[in-house]
Amino acid sequence: MKALVYNGQHGKELVEKPKPSLLKPTDAIIRITKTTICGTDLHILGGDVPAVTAGRTLGHEGVGIVEEVGSAVNNFKPGDRVLISCITSCGKCDNCKKSLYAHCEDGGWILGHLIDGTQAEYVRIPHADNSLYHIPEGVDEEALVMLSDILPTGFEIGVLSGQVKPGDTVAIVGGGPVGLAALLTAQFYSPAEIIMIDLDDNRLEVAQKFGATKVVNSSDGKAVEKILELTGNKGVDVAIEAVGIPATFALCQEIIAAGGHIANVGVHGKSVELHLEKLWIRNVTITTGLVSTNSTPMLLNTVKSGKLKPEQLVTHRFSFDQIEQAYDVFKNAAKNKALKVIISND
Ligand SMILES: NC(=O)c1ccc[n+]([C@@H]2O[C@H](COP(=O)([O-])OP(=O)(O)OC[C@H]3O[C@@H](n4cnc5c(N)ncnc54)[C@H](O)[C@@H]3O)[C@@H](O)[C@H]2O)c1
Ligand SMILES: [Zn+2]
Ligand SMILES: [Zn+2]
Predict the structure, then answer these.
(1) Residue 16 belongs to what domain range?
(2) If residue 169 lies in a helix (H) or strand (E), which one and from where to where?
């Protein structure tokens, strides 16, 4: 089968590999019909995730059709159409019992990281019963690819951890796919204002279409003043950090209102400055985390009912043979006005 692999210092390569086979009775083999590329895949190619070794198939998002199941898989059978979660979870360990699937003792984020991932014709999914979801009849499969990772991430680590409430003023720093996912799902809670902050005018324009009430281009270094002006000098009730650099975490600390919540979603490669000397007296809460995808069943229902339309995030489509081209488009997202790319294998 064809697979896109990480090739160490040589970057990525489309190669022929043996089709995966069942290794444990709890495994399933899925034929991938649609997958996508995540910012994290770019981090891997940049050498930022040293646990990924040369020859590893990339990708942790996708939908497909069950090809084969192990003897202990009860919920799925060959022919079922499924959504693959970016987080693998056994459903039985202490952390899974707390819905903290990100820290499953025999799973977590392993796909396209510690085991071969979804940017291939077939993938092996361990603990299939808890790591796959049935695709409801009539639901757009491109929309569901967005549910493998970015929608649960923006929702769980941004909106839920930030405790967005009706009437709140919310700032989202970073209007990439994850920030936009937070923007779409924050609206479940009817905040009064959602201010999107980014450097890219195209992304800010998209954010306005997706429901941002105000946008701030922070490239002039005046974002703090602008946001304080927009909030009558109070600051925002919730600041969602969806970039992952010191400057944007610093911005969140400067715009947070008394009693506010800073929800850090971005993956940080460098340490940040924490201004506890200013924050403690303002009753500010700071949260952070790796997505667990335990909100997936609820998000699936909102897509099914039409309340959530994640297909809006798809800007480009490619066949599997064009996956390297898809990476080029995604890597140069601003130039190509790209958000999420769909790679089809049907
Ligand atoms: N916590 C988790 O479980 C989890 C899961 C998935 C992704 N992530 C992380 O979430 C972050 C966002 O992911 P993404 O795919 O949307 O990334 P992305 O790179 O596509 O988007 C980041 C956005 O931030 C903007 N930006 C960059 N510098 C900025 C600055 N100084 N001020 C304002 N905006 C700025 C960019 O223009 C871009 O629109 C990444 O750090 C990613 O690794 C975390
Ligand atoms: Zn991802
Ligand atoms: Zn577990």
Answers:
(1) 2-148+293-344
(2) strand 169-173
